[in-house]
């Protein structure tokens, strides 16, 4: 990063040492943490702009200046360039190829909101180019990708935040839930149920012309080369402006080639909070067993036999054997949220509520002072980007770090592998491999398509 910005951050850390950098939060729209003037604000770029890409960008304008945007869809790119110029009063440079963003010396950090199959390649190359990284969840397409990202974070010393916003931005109830468990309000935890909803199967999706402005070859990138498919009906509401059924854009989460269905979508939120509360953020399960599940297409040897329909699981109930004899259930049934059950009580939490006898008891017996801050590791940031910039200033990892994220995401990935192979999997959380199952271990990694290998 530029020398002037290094000096600013060093001065900030010296001045903040007495208070502790992790406890600082400045809501000002004029400057970010530790930056003395608008010219010293961090310079960001966003790669991948549809839906969540714009969401994380728009929430970050009060903390950073955006010098560049990149997307393989020219229409999405042009729209977001115009919106960004209107928001910040300066037009960002526009690129189809993200590598031109990484070549820029003025960019301090990149925000990545591409489909999942692109996350690891861009993130690794960004760190090697000297950028700090904010990457949307789920961080990886495979378990081995997570190990690679961890290696490069250590190698480069870059600050890396995963976009699991339930840890801060929408997380006050979840922080309270973790604090309740930590304070023993339900006794010894016996069971935790993560309700993450199911998904619908698709009709047969026929081949279609690639939409004008979309570089579909580049969109596929590391994934296998396949024809573009879409039906004429358009999606309404969130994710609107794209086909309701396709193998691209908004629907990418429904295909194992690009994502992991509900397990790595909502699972990446609720399993994360469950593991945090259980103190299992640096370990893993001993076994993952699919009790009930439904795949929308036929599978052979763990792979779908057709390419014209969604292939991620539509319904499921998965048992996960966690440390200390805790049973975790991940299910598509019931309310979206997390149910904690212990020897002394139970409570339920989601983004709209936290309910149960232990919660009601807080009126007369509140949590100890500092209990929430103890969970978070300091004063809670109201904005996920704010916590990221705190980490950039302090040169330490933020609340949504890659290690805790990868550990819980391994549960989600293993759940998908277990369903695809239709059997339980014994897991070694130290070696981070499936025990005695070579076929299952072959799903821990995936080779990138030729021409889209990760440039190390």
UniProtKB/TrEMBL annotation:
Its EC number is 1.1.1.18. Keywords: Oxidoreductase. GO terms for molecular function: inositol 2-dehydrogenase (NAD+) activity; nucleotide binding. It comes from Gimesia alba. Gene3D superfamilies: Dihydrodipicolinate Reductase, domain 2, NAD(P)-binding Rossmann-like Domain. This is Inositol 2-dehydrogenase. Residues 88-163 form the Gfo/Idh/MocA-like oxidoreductase N-terminal domain. Residues 205-453 form the Gfo/Idh/MocA-like oxidoreductase bacterial type C-terminal domain. Pfam families: GFO_IDH_MocA (PF01408), GFO_IDH_MocA_C2 (PF19051).
């Amino acid at each position: 990063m530029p020398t002037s910005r290094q000096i600013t951050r060093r001065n900030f850390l010296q001045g903040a040492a007495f208070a502790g950098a992790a406890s600082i939060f400045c809501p000002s729209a004029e400057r970010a943490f530790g930056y003395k003037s608008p010219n010293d604000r961090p310079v960001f770029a966003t790669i991948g702009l549809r839906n969540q890409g714009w969401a994380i960008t728009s929430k970050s304008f009060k903390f950073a200046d955006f010098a560049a945007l990149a997307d393989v869809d020219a229409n999405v790119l042009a729209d977001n360039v115009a919106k960004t110029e209107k928001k910040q009063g300066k037009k960002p440079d526009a690129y189809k190829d993200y590598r031109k963003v990484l070549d820029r010396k003025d960019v301090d950090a990149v925000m990545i909101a591409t489909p999942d199959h692109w996350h690891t390649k861009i993130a690794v190359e960004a760190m090697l180019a000297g950028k700090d990284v904010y990457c949307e969840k789920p961080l990886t397409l495979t378990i081995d990708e997570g190990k690679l990202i961890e290696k490069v974070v250590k190698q480069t010393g870059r600050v890396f935040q995963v976009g699991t916003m339930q840890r801060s931005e929408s997380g006050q109830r979840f922080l309270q839930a973790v604090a309740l468990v930590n304070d023993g309000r339900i006794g010894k935890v016996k069971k935790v149920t993560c309700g993450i909803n199911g998904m619908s199967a698709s009709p047969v999706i026929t081949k279609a012309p690639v939409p004008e402005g979309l570089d579909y070859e580049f969109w596929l990138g590391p994934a296998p080369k396949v024809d573009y498919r879409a039906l004429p009906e358009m999606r309404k509401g969130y994710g609107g402006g794209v086909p309701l059924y396709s193998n691209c854009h908004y629907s990418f989460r429904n295909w194992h080639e690009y994502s992991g269905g509900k397990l790595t979508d909502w699972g990446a939120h609720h399993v994360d909070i469950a593991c945090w509360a259980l103190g299992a953020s640096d370990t893993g399960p001993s076994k993952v067993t699919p009790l009930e599940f439904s795949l929308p297409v036929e599978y052979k040897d763990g792979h779908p036999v057709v390419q014209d329909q969604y292939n991620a699981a539509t319904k499921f109930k998965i048992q996960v054997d966690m440390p200390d004899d805790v049973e975790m259930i991940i299910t598509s049934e019931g309310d979206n949220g997390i149910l904690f059950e212990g020897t002394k009580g139970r409570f339920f939490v989601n983004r709209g509520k936290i309910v149960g006898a232990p919660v009601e008891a807080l009126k007369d017996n509140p949590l100890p002072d500092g209990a929430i801050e103890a969970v978070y590791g300091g004063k809670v940031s109201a904005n996920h980007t704010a916590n990221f910039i705190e980490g950039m200033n302090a040169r330490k990892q933020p609340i949504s770090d890659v290690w805790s994220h990868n550990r819980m995401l391994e549960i989600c990935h293993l759940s998908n592998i277990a369903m695809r192979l239709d059997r339980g999997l014994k897991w070694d959380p130290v070696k981070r491999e499936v025990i005695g199952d070579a076929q299952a271990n072959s799903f821990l990694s995936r080779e990138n398509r030729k021409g889209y290998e990760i440039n190390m």
